[in-house]
Each structure stands twice: as structure tokens, then as C-alpha cells.
Amino acid sequence: MSKNLRALAATACYQVVDQGKSLSEVLHKAQIEMDSPLDKALLQEICFGVMRYLPQLETVCQKLMDKPLVKHLRPLQFLIYVGLYQLKFLRVPDHAAIGETVEAARELKGQSLTGLINAVLRSVQRKPEVFDFQDAPLPVQYNHPSWIITQLQQAYPDNWQQILDENQQKAPLWLRVNQLRTTPEAYLAALAAEGIAASQPFAYLPCALLLEQASDVTLLPGYADGWFSVQDGAAQHAAYFLGARNKDSVLDACCAPGGKTCHILELAPEADVLALDKDPRRLDRVYDNLDRLGLDARVMTADAADPDDWAGFQTFDRILLDVPCSATGVIRRHPDIRWLRKKTDIAPLVELQQQILRNIWPLLKPDAELLYATCSVLPEENQQQIEAFLADHADAQLIPLADSHPQLHWQILPGQQQMDGFFYAKLRKTKR
To answer: Gene3D superfamilies under this entry (predicted)?
Structure first.
């Protein structure tokens, strides 16, 4: 028997915000408790929604409650947010949203608070104007922490509001067709036969498909047979820009969960690919993806920042450096990032990126190419990082990304051509 969906959602949100756990991790565990696919989807919708609108939900509670619930009652505070989100943003009937939320309090051992929770939710039902935030502080208006807003205002003075608005949108579903198993045309036909509409936004990336509506990917045609992978359109540019060829020696230096590793091999199946990541648990996903898609790579648990421990005398024709970053470009896809990431995280990340780039560079052969990538929109992780590296390395040359993209670097912003935020720059090692 499934547990109360609202109680699971409240517990998951509490674990993210108060305990610093990943939403992906806690949501997966919560969904296991649900029997119905529709309930699993609703659970995800509520958790994502609370993460997206947390400051506004908190502000409404401040208006309607004498003081927030604390200590062991904190999960019940998040249960109120769950109820508020349903009333304001979902098509759940009011009586069901209120009734199920109050009932969930009993499962969370909050029987004595059912009256309070019922009163708060019914107040919002009677007074929807409590969700008017026109004159509220910017973190409440835009549902982002103040440090992210400040960073975006400084980096993008003309369109910071647009970036924040895009972060509030639901990310679309992109697929990457495995061209070793089928063709884009054949897969589009298979989707159409199931009544699923999709498009090919990029002529130079024919395997990149954008679905008009989200779907349970495990139920799409050919999932078990490795006909496709789920990968955002921005991330699908990595293997394309890298340009690895058959017989090339290729390093994917921060590979987990393996989507880009697999794409490299789909484009160059005879390439010798070394995929490494320092977290052995995350490498399980890499093995799973390689196996499902029928691909083969050398996979290693290793730290890209310390190649002396694993590289030996290896050198590479192509290196993909998708470095650890703030992930500020994928907030719409992972709305918990805005609450898990802190301003104090940025400087150590920038230093780590510099260290990885500096230490991996000697492994690149002369005349070979390295692609630097992040899913960040912060200049200090992107353009400024490349500029600093070029100033210190006379044998590094910034080159165009591809014939279709002659620019020397590309900052994709969230929502641009329906993609996630991403950054790319391509470096060639000269012989001097």
C-alpha cells in the first residue's frame, strides 16, 4: 500500500532544505513508496514546485502563522508548503488538496497540528491575494537566494530577470538517438506511431530530438534496446564540438553519469575512450548507460585534478573537460540547486576548475584539442577561467567550436532554444 503522497513530499523537501540532501536522491527513495505511476509523477511535481517557489511559500506562512514550526516539527512546516503549492499552482481540487494535506499530518505524527494546518490552507483559499508579491524583496519576487540574483545582475545587467524567469520554467524533455541502433528518422516515426510529437531543432545535430510533452522515458519506444538516451540539447553539443574520430585516444575527464561518454562513442565507435570520475558510486550510472546502449569504454575511478596518480605516460588526441561547477545553468532542471549551493562554494569551485585544467593540459598531444565545458552561467567559471588559462599557457590557442559555431566560446543561457545553461570553449595545443 502506498504511503501518503503529501507526507512523502513534505519529508523529501525537508531533507533537501534543512538537511542538504539532493532532491534527486530523496525523491527517488520516496517514489519507491508509491504504487501508481500517476502518484509518482504528482509527487515529483509537488517536490519540484515547492523547491521553485519556496520563498513565496515561506512568505505566505509568515503572513498567516504567528511563528514557523521548528525542530522536530519542521517536516510539518514543509507539509504546509506542500498544501499551499497545490492550492496555488496545481489543478488539484481545493477540498482534496486541503483534506489530503491535513491527513498527511497524522502520518507525520502531527495530529495536534491538524487544526492549524487546516486553518492556514483555508485562509489561502479565502484570500488568494496573499500570493501578491509585487512589492516583495527580490528573493521573494524571483524565488532565488539573494546571492544568485546579485551574481546575475552583475554578469547580465540587461537580462538577469529573464534568466531568473527561465529558471522557474519546467525543463523540456530532450532525447539523443543512438545512431548505432537506429536512425533519427526511424525513431521519429516510432514516436509518431505512439502519438508522441517531437522535432529536430538542429540540422547539424540530427539525433537531438525535442519532445513536445514530457513522458515516462522508460515507456518510450526502444528504451530497453538502447535506441536513445535522455540528454539536454545543450549537453548534446559536447561530443559534437569535441569532434573525436575513430582511432582517436579520448579522455572524458569528469565523466559521470556518462551521457557525454556514450555520445562520443556513438559518433566515433572505434575511438579509444577513457572515462574517469572520482566518485565510484556515480560510475555505476556510467556502466549502466554503456551497457544499455551497447558501447565500450575504459572506465576508471580517478581524480582528474591529480593525473600523476593514474595517467602514466598516456596522452590524448581529444580531451573533454566537463568540470565540476556551480550548476547555475541547470536550475530549472534541478530546482534544489538554488538552496543547496552557497555563495561560498564558488571560489573553491573556480580553484578546482583551474587545477583540473592546468593538470590535465600536459596530457593533450601537440596539435590536439581540449573542450572545456560547464553547466554554469557565472563568468568566473567560464570566460574568465579560459582567459586566465590562456594568459598562463603560451601553447594554448582558442579555436572556433565548429563550422556551425565559428565563435571562440559559447555561453548558452537557460531557455535559449529551449536548452539548459551551458558554456563551451575549445583549445588547441600548439607545437611551440
So the answer is: Helix hairpin bin (1.10.287.730), NusB-like (1.10.940.10), Sun protein, domain 3 (3.30.70.1170), Vaccinia Virus protein VP39 (3.40.50.150)
Using alpha carbons, select from 169, 125, 164 the residue that is nearest to residue 145.
164
Residue 245 near residue 271 (C-beta atoms within 8 A): yes
3-state secondary structure of 24: helix
Q: pLDDT digits over 112-153, tens only? A: 999 999 999 999 999 999 999 999 999 999 999 999 999 999
For CA atoms 141, 144, 147, 150, the dihedral sign is negative
Q: Which three cell numbers stand for residue 389?
A: 588559462
Amino acid identity of residue 195, one-letter, is G
Q: Where are the beta strands (DSSP E) in 149-244?
A: 174-177, 198-199, 208-211, 228-230
**C-alpha dihedral sign at 352, 353, 354, 357:** positive
Characterize the bridge pairing of strands 316-322 and 228-230: unpaired
pLDDT, tens digit (0-9, with 9 covering 90-100), for 337-346? 999 999 999 9
Is-contact 212 198, C-beta < 8 A?
A: yes
Instruction: List the grid coordinates of 195.
Output: 502519438
* Residue 27 dihedral angles phi and psi, to the nearest 5°: -65, -40
Give me the sign of the Cα torsion angle 363, 367, 371, 372: positive
Q: How far apart are CA 294 and CA 225, in angstroms?
A: 9
Residue 254 annotated as part of some ligand binding site: yes
Q: How far apart are CA 30 and CA 40, in angstroms?
A: 9
Catalytic site positions:
375
Contact status, residue 13 vs residue 81, Cβ threshold 8 Å? yes
* pLDDT at res. 269: 97
The dihedral built from the CA positions of residue 190, 215, 178 and 402, taken in this order, carries a sign that is positive
Exposed (0-12), middle (13-18) or buried (19+): which is 209, by Cβ within 10 Å?
Answer: buried
CB 149 within 8 A of CB 138: yes
277 is in an annotated binding site: yes
Q: Is 343 part of any known ligand binding site? A: no
